[in-house]
Recover the amino acids of this structure.
């Protein structure tokens, strides 16, 4: 059964908690909309935040996110797209 589009899956909530902890956000992980943009509107992250998240993801999931990857805009489009990329490539 697929959760509603605005509901976080367990994996997305785990990733949201990692992002909140990594960036010391005041937002609660459960409040992050899975389809909201991570850049600009939505969470309002910038390129430095994305670098910090990429490092944390590498440590937690073994997924290497490269700054020169042409897919980054798509990968970091939303929490859901980032989580899908992690689940497809994780080694941990």
């Amino acid at each position: 059964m697929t959760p509603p589009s605005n509901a976080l899956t367990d994996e997305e909530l785990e990733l949201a908690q990692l992002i909140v902890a990594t960036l010391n956000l005041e937002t609660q992980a459960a409040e992050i909309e899975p389809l909201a943009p991570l850049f600009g509107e939505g969470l309002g992250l910038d390129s430095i935040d994305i670098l910090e998240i990429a490092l944390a993801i590498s440590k937690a999931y073994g997924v290497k996110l490269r700054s020169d990857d042409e897919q980054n805009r798509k990968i970091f489009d939303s929490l859901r797209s980032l989580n899908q990329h992690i689940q497809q490539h994780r080694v941990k």
In short: The helical segments are 10-23, 47-61, 72-75, 79-89. The CA atoms of residues 10 and 69 lie 27 Å apart. The chain has a mean pLDDT of 91.
